[in-house]
TrEMBL record:
Organism: Spiribacter onubensis
SUPFAM superfamilies: FAD/NAD(P)-binding domain
Lineage: superkingdom: Bacteria
Protein name in the entry: FAD-dependent oxidoreductase
Domain annotation Amine oxidase: ranges: 98-318
Any single Pfam family the record assigns to this protein: NAD_binding_8
Length: 331
């Protein structure tokens, strides 16, 4: 069995590794420059800046075991921070917040090691042939034939790809609402004199602020703050220019901290599908119709851990299907 995985985020990479452990070949396609999805880090002249996922938590036993392995491998570390709700300065819920080191994309690269990950390739069409599933790229080029498909891309992209070949799953993807997020890396001339490292603003356009250098293995200079706009503000201003967004959100940050930071650079990034607010909460962790499966945070609970569990569950389902076809299944 040859499997195509569309999307090299945490769900796709988790699935790829589970299939590899079972001796099943897979090819992971991703339109980005490298693996990671929303856990990628932007490389700049000031160093790598985590503009996507800021941290993750581990609640499930199986995922905690995986985190322990990643910590032993030196790619994950706890972030000893307790964010404040601002400006009220109430502490957020205490929990162990984890980050990849030395940047968030390090975990994705660790998971991708040894997998056939083809970056910079956008799957634009899926067709069903007698010989199997055929994938085509954005210029119509064939990307190969596969026995089964696993889509781990954001719900709107999954819906678009499956609209014709698998409308049943496309309809399920349409039911999951994903929200955008504008993110800004604010590079400062000198450190701020504030007594917190991260916070959740309770009003205004900002939903998250964090001092990058407070994370493990990050440089302290130049001081860089990551600013995330709220989903509502991002959606309302999704077509703004990066320059306009950077200036507006840095002004909002100055008002929040009641200081005027000296800004060296503003680096803005638009995530069109940042958060799965309408996650489907599928108990099995995946969607399935014939030889097509869907997995990802939007299928489960919207968290990094949910994406990882979803990818593994889908991979196990594919392994079981292969065993059933070969007559090795139980029962």
């Amino acid at each position: 069995m040859r499997i195509a995985i569309i999307g090299a985020g945490i769900a796709g990479l988790s699935a790829g590794r589970a299939l590899q452990a079972a001796g099943i070949d897979s090819v992971v396609f991703d339109k980005g420059r490298g693996p990671g999805g929303r856990m990628v880090s932007k490389r700049t002249e000031y160093g790598a800046i985590d503009l996507g996922a800021q941290y993750f938590t581990a609640r499930d036993g199986e995922f905690r075991a995986a985190v322990d392995e990643w910590q032993s491998a030196g790619v994950v570390a706890p972030w000893p921070v307790n964010p404040l709700v601002l400006p009220e300065r109430q502490p957020a819920r205490p929990e162990t917040r984890l980050v990849a080191v030395p940047r968030m994309s390090a975990l994705a690269r660790h998971l991708a090691d040894g997998l056939d990950v083809q970056s910079g390739i956008q799957v634009s069409e899926i067709t069903r042939e007698l010989s199997g599933w055929v994938l085509s790229g954005r210029h119509g080029e064939s990307l190969g034939e596969f026995d089964a498909l696993l889509l781990t891309a954001p719900a709107p992209q999954t819906q678009s790809l499956l609209a014709e070949p698998c409308p049943r799953l496309a309809a399920r993807a349409a039911a999951s609402r994903m929200q955008p997020c504008w993110s800004v890396g604010l590079v400062l001339e000198r450190p701020l004199e504030v007594d917190f490292d991260a916070g959740f603003p309770s009003s205004g356009p900002l939903g998250w602020v964090a001092r990058s250098g407070s994370r493990p293995d990050r440089p302290h200079l130049p001081e860089i703050w990551t600013l995330h706009a709220t989903a509502a503000w991002s959606e309302a201003n999704i077509e703004w220019s990066p320059e306009a967004v950077g200036e507006y959100l840095s002004t909002a940050f100055a008002e929040l901290i009641r200081q005027t930071p000296l800004v060296t650079a503003r680096i803005a990034h638009r995530w069109r599908f940042a958060r799965a607010r309408g996650a489907l909460a599928e108990s099995v962790g995946y969607l399935e119709h014939e030889d097509v499966l869907c997995a990802g945070d939007w299928v489960t609970d919207g968290r990094v851990e949910g994406a990882w569990r979803s990818g593994r569950a889908a991979a196990r389902r594919l392994v079981n299907r292969l065993m059933e076809r070969s007559g090795q299944g139980g029962g």
